[in-house]
Specification:
Blueprint (H helix, E strand, L loop, with lengths): L1 E2 L2 H10 L8 E2 L17 H8 L7 E6 L3 H4 L1 H11 L4 E6 L6
Parallel strand pairs: 1-2, 3-4
Length: 98
């Protein structure tokens, strides 16, 4: 059985009678050749322009689904508590409905 993280693996072991050696962890991966910043040095500026993000802004990025479990509320509160007008939280993903 494949688990996408050690967290998921622990959760499966806690709730199901499966031998640990039957579980493998398949970590999320990034294709470093495709997402190499030096290959497209202008990509950051282009994305900022597309998203209307000022050059002086510091972007905190959250990529997630299941926002409640992943802590979106806490991320928003922490960002606001810093009171740094340069900081913005950019959230990518969607909440599952239903």
């Amino acid at each position: 059985m494949l688990c996408l993280s050690e967290y998921v693996k622990r959760d499966v072991l806690e709730h199901y009678a499966i031998a640990p050696n039957r579980l493998a962890t398949l970590f999320n991966a990034v294709d470093l050749a495709r997402f190499d910043p030096s290959a497209r040095p202008s990509a950051g500026a282009e994305l900022r322009k597309y998203l209307h993000i000022a050059p002086g802004k510091v972007v905190a990025l959250m990529i997630a689904q299941d926002f409640a479990r992943k802590g979106l509320r806490e991320a928003i509160l922490a960002t606001a508590k810093l009171r740094d007008r340069r900081l913005m939280l950019l959230v990518v993903g969607r909440e599952r409905r239903g």
